[in-house]
Amino acid sequence: MTETGEMRFSRVHQASPERLFDCMTTPEHLAQFWGPTGTTTPADNITVDLRPGGAFETTMVNDADGSTYTMKAVYAEVSRPDRLVWIEAGVEGGMRTEITFIDLGDGRTEAVTHQTNVPQAYLSAEAQAGFRTSLDRLDTYLASLDSEQ
Q: Cα–Cα distance between 117 and 22 in angstroms, integer?
């Protein structure tokens, strides 16, 4: 096992906690933003068994070369719309991701993501920048949902 660390991201989204939670737990929504810029994650490549002990798996496709990256996790906590926790057992013995959805009371939600047991490769500036592009994509997707109403 290599050295691990932790990361924390916070982002305010223009969406209710319920909408944000649903976007993070529904393959059709996840397919619109999951993964950094330059990747796609088709809904058919996403498994969501939304219950503690249920599977959460995604396979991202690199748009440039078609290579794939699969993430396999198991939900540890599911509490709509406040909290979502999953563990990737195959990543350094169990990388844990916790997302807390905080209702700001004005149609916005702060999503706080806290990851522990994070491998060094995931802690790089490039990896963190990639994570942020996924959040940017989520914001763009949320805005598109608002324009449909």
A: 26
- Nearest to 50, CA basis, from 26, 14, 67: 26
Number of DSSP helices (H) and strands (E) in the chain, helices first = 3, 8
CA distance 50 to 41: 18
Residue of 74, 75, 41 whose CA lies nearest to 58: 41
Phi-psi region of 11 (alpha: psi -120 to 50; beta: other; left: phi over 0): beta
pLDDT value of position 61: 97
The angle formed by the CA atoms of residues 129, 31 and 102, to the nearest 5 degrees, is 65
CA distance 69 to 73: 13
Average pLDDT of the segment spanning 17-27? 97
Residue 62 CA to residue 45 CA, distance in Å, equals: 13
Summarised one tens digit per residue, pLDDT across range 84-118 is 999 999 888 899 999 999 999 999 999 999 999 99
Pairwise CA distance, residues 60 & 70, whole Å: 6
Quote the pTM value. 0.92
